[in-house]
Every structure is written in structure tokens, then in C-alpha cells.
UniProtKB/TrEMBL annotation:
GO terms, molecular function: iron-sulfur cluster binding; metal ion binding
Keyword terms, alphabetized: Electron transport, Iron, Iron-sulfur, Metal-binding, Transport
Domain of life: Archaea
Record PANTHER family: FERREDOXIN
Keyword DNA-binding on entry: no
Gene3D superfamilies, sorted: 3.30.70.20
Name this protein carries in UniProt: Ferredoxin
Record-linked Pfam families: Fer4_15
Listed InterPro entries: Fe-S_cluster_ET
Iron in keyword set: yes
Amino acid sequence: MRVRFDRDTCIGMYQCVAEWDAFEKDLNDGKADLAGSEETEPDVFEVAVPEGEELDAKFAARACPVDAIEVYDDDGEQVV
């Protein structure tokens, strides 16, 4: 499972931070950061979800008020 995070879309409500430890507050920019991720496009970051954290990743995506977080299964299908 992978998470894709569009940081440009993020408005800094930090609900994702409350749902999954992989997200961190960046108070300087007023946006979240996705720890351990790699930038795949300008301001778009992706990371593999560690085993056992799949539900947290899904909750983080669902909690985002601007849909800046997407979750994909191992076949590349979007699940959130």
C-alpha cells in the first residue's frame, strides 16, 4: 500500500497528523509533511505504508478536508 500526498493542496488543518504518525506539522509553512516520503512530482510526495499502519493511513486520507491524501493498494488501485 502507498500514500500519495499533494502538499500544495494541503491547507494545514493537521487532521492527518492526529490520525497517522507519518504526518508531521510544519508550522513554518503551515502545512503537513509526510515523513520518509520521496517527491515524485513538484510538491507531491509518496511513501510505502508500513505493515500494520494501513488503517491509520486510510483514516488520515479520509480526515483530510481538501483530499490532499490518496491511498493506493499494491495493485495501484485507489482505495481512499
